[in-house]
Design brief:
single chain; mainly alpha
Length: about 100
């Protein structure tokens, strides 16, 4: 009888220890699940921010393309003004030449 009682006590202790370990394991799993949710939320935030960053960079790139186009247009205008200035200088030289010739007459 004593042996049976001792065996039953040992079994009760083992069951109690298993129950405690199962409770600790459930707590650990719950903690890990919460941390996983937090990591997932953080990753989703980072993805959203990366999407916004990419959109911002695309907008900057598009703006730079517009600036480059404007600079090219401006360069064309400067070239046209330069050519016009040369032609005006030629016309002024011709007028000056005509004025000198008429003074000789």
């Amino acid at each position: 009888m004593k042996n049976i009682k001792a065996t039953m006590d040992d079994m009760a202790s083992a069951v109690e220890e298993l129950a405690n370990n199962a409770t600790k394991l459930a707590g650990s799993i719950s903690d890990i699940t919460e941390k996983g949710k937090s990591v997932n939320s953080t990753m989703l935030d980072l993805v959203d921010k990366a999407d916004v960053g990419q959109k911002d960079m695309k907008a900057v790139s598009d703006s730079m393309g517009g600036i480059t186009g404007s600079m090219s247009d401006m360069n064309d205008v400067v070239n046209i003004v330069g050519e016009s200035a040369k032609k005006i200088t030629e016309i002024v030289s011709m007028i000056d030449s005509i004025a000198q010739q008429t003074n000789l007459l």
